Amino acid sequence: MSNPYSHAADDDLFSSRFRFARRSEHTQVAKRPDKYVQDIIQPRSHAIRSPQPAHDFQDELTDMLYGVNMSLDDDTTPIATQFSLSEPMQPVTDKKQKHLRFTGLRSKLLYGMAVIVFMFGMAVGLQGWMLNRKVADQVAPPVHAADRATEPTNPDETKPDTNALANYTVAGDMPRYVRVPSLGVEARVLRMGINAAGEVATPNNVFDTGWYDGSAKPGQAGASLLVGHVSGVSSKGIFGTVDKLKPGDIIEVERGDGQKLTYKVASSQVYPNDAVDMNKALEPVAAGKQGLNLITCHGSFNASTHQYSERIVVFATQV
User: Torsion-angle region of residue 198: left (phi > 0), alpha (psi -120 to 50) or beta?
Assistant: First the structure.
């Protein structure tokens, strides 16, 4: 009699074989790379292996990665070929971080310097604007004052004596005396500004001259403007004969420090008393050279208004 369990045993054996066969037909499941492979793919400080030839090691790594299905999509280069084993990868170091910090610091410094340069430019521009405004304010009053200039009703006609002339002193860079040899003129030069009426002030003595402090100082760029009386009530003033000056005549100015500056008359011009070109009177007649200009009243005198009908300006150039 046959063994009743023989078929069962055969079935178990068959099933076992069948299951084994079925398992063998499955595609081998990719295994997770072991620690050795991970250290190669993701470099770590402790993943340092004993040296071996670069080409053998790369071939072995490539085979291993392909064996565990580590390749990317069909249109992508396999991971194994993305690494160059002949040039070992280095981790991010403090040197790179320092470089980044240095780059940021440099950018901040450049920005700060740009801001400083901009602010400096603004300050220079503002200073220039203020200076131009000041010059404009200085020039404006004489332009207006020349249209209304009047001779003092009763200026002092006492001629300064020799001691008064000799003992007169001023700052070193300011005019002290003016001399016109062809006219026999020698006079003190007083500092003059704008009076309460908005006019260019004139000396209280007909024998003194005045330097308008809104013009250039003698020896400096620009033109110095000297004002003087043409006459008093009973005598001629210090500029009573300036209309006699001719081109080539000499005018000398002595400064407070003793320096003497010589000027040569270039021309003279007469204006109506209400149309004096004061801008021209405050500029040198020869561009680029230091000038000296004299201004005084001229023409006929109106006793009721105490005004002269004209003004005369003599233009001279430093030599």
Answer: left
DSSP 262-286: EEEEEEEEEEETT---HHHHTS-SS
pLDDT tens per residue across span 58-85: 555 555 555 544 444 444 444 444 444 4
Token pair recorded at residue 57? 């090691």
Longest Cα–Cα distance of the chain, Å, equals 178
CA distance 252 to 121: 42
309: Cβ contacts below 8 Å, ≥ 6 apart: 272, 273, 298, 299, 300, 301, 302
215 and 166 in contact (C-beta within 8 Å)? Answer: no
DSSP string, 162-230: HHHHHT----TTSEEEEEEGGGTEEEEEEEE-B-TTSSB---SBTT-EEEETTSPPTTSSSEEEEEE-S
SS3 231: strand
DSSP annotation of 316: E
How would you label 105-117 residue by residue, b for 16+ Cβ within 10 Å and e otherwise?
A: eeeeeeeeeeeee
318, 261 contact by CB (below 8 A): yes
Q: What is the pLDDT of residues 116-159, one digit of tens each?
A: 777 766 665 555 445 444 444 444 444 434 333 444 557 899 99
Given this model, what pLDDT does residue 89 score? 53
Q: Computed from CA positions of residues 168, 171, 173, 175, in that sequence, does the dihedral angle turn out positive or negative?
A: negative
The span from the CA of 144 to the CA of 211, in Å, is: 18
Cβ-Cβ contacts under 8 Å for 198 (sequence gap 6 or more) = 141, 144, 145
Q: What are phi and psi of 117, to 5 degrees?
A: -60, -40
AA letter at 256: G
Q: How many other CB atoms sit within 10 Å of the CB of residue 266?
A: 18
Specify the amino acid at residue 246. Answer: K
